[in-house]
Amino acid sequence: MLESRMSRTVLRGGSIAAPDGLVRADVAFEGDLITEVGAVPPREGDAVVDAAGRLILPGFVDAHSHADGLLRDPDVTRALLRQGVTTVIGGQDGISYAPGDGSYASAYFAAINGPHPTYRGGGVAALLASVDGASPVNAGYLVPAGTVRFEVCGRREGAASDAERARMGELVAQGMAEGALGLSTGLDYVPGIFQDAAEIAALCVPVASAGGVYVSHMRGGYENNTAAGIDEMRAISEAASRAAGAPLPVHVSHLHADADIVLTQIDALAEAGVDATFDAYPYIRGCTLLGMPLLPPEISALETDEIVARLTDPSGRDALRETCVQRASHSPSLGPDWPDMIALAHIAASAFAWAHGLTLREAAARAGADPMDFAFDVLAASRMESSAVMAVHNPRPDGELARIFAHPAHTGGSDGIFIGAHPHPRAAGSFARYLRVFVRELGTWSWADAVHHLSAQPADRFGLGRRGVIEAGAVADVLLVDPETVADAATYERPTEPAVGIDDVFVAGVQVLAGGELTGALPGRGLRREGA
Predict the structure, then answer these.
(1) pTM here?
(2) Domains in the chain with CATH codes
(3) Of 99, 163, 268, 410, which has the fewest Cβ atoms less than 10 A away?
(4) What is the arithmetic mean of pLDDT over 52-62?
């Protein structure tokens, strides 16, 4: 049940971000909608909030979040709201809970999404309903193509049969009918790595027909492979659009590469007639499952018990070790110094709690072990529930990120992973860092630009209705932002420090953060695609 509301809330004395600069304005809302913007004289019974010296901005939409199963966790929701995030888009990277009973995501993505606290089946409708009135934050959902394939084909490699494709298409269509925003793929994860472009295009036909969007963690990593990944997205969009008789827009997940490559490839999609957007977070390092860059896909595809048996069997471990060392050493993102590139973020084994935050080389040295053998020990002890922060060989300065973020197709996304004792700081800091670095310090964005990239454009891209703007009739997901102090506090050394400068947040007209602390109100909703 949603929280009861006062008759009217008036935010007095603040400023809104207009295209030509900041404009002094009050903002009033009744129920869950904004009713007035401008000079709003308070009336008897109003709840008046002093907004003097602060900006009144629409709530931010995190276009790529892994908070799917954590929206009842007060530490997670506080971290989101302190950055101004009022809506997250889950179901990312092709792996999440629905359809099915959630067991595959809870196991394979345990170090990324974690197990869901309540969902045990019922599809997209049940998963979205689990958010209604149970969280201070809203959540939208993408049908995860890898989970769909697992439900039909299991873990096996190879192409799906025509009958299997048809059944997968039915699951996607059902998810879209139940309010999903689109389809996601994770083409470096299992089983997404086994899905070819033709299979994905077939799954995208019901997405295009329903007015959804195709979202992808592209195949083969990014950096030097970006052009190939973008070309595959274009081919999928064109094939699905022809089959559906309706356009299929696309959205590229966490698009990080050389700025010239990113800008050229996004523009190439537009030139090909594909409606494309992308998200990119304001950090250089990445974060993923520890096993993904080390183990070959055919090993990762096995049941956990079998993987653990192989990692601990002395007769097969040496051969697997050599294969994995070669895989890591020849990876474009890792290379010969791979043990220095991987820092341990989450290990679900208490015996290795001491290793959190250390690189594989540092941890292995303390244990008196070879780095790959140490990684095998960690993966086996944690039953594969381990993640890592990944360094890069050529860190990009904020000025180069600024070129990427200045592209009008960019949207804010954190790729935030909250699981772990030493997670990537992007989960706690991304949106505040956007504002500190790219508005206040570098001037890449005006405040109106920040609203476009972090609120309006993602709300439009994902079909979230009247969100992402401060105007009468819009949903009252609203932030009060101190433009002089808003900043990220999370670092690689202290990755869970909460952001500062956003202390008061409203979701659907209900105050969920007051003075930087949760109020206990739970007006969040599972957001169904507009028109679903």
Answers:
(1) 0.96
(2) 58-284+396-518 (3.20.20.140), 288-389 (no CATH)
(3) 163
(4) 98
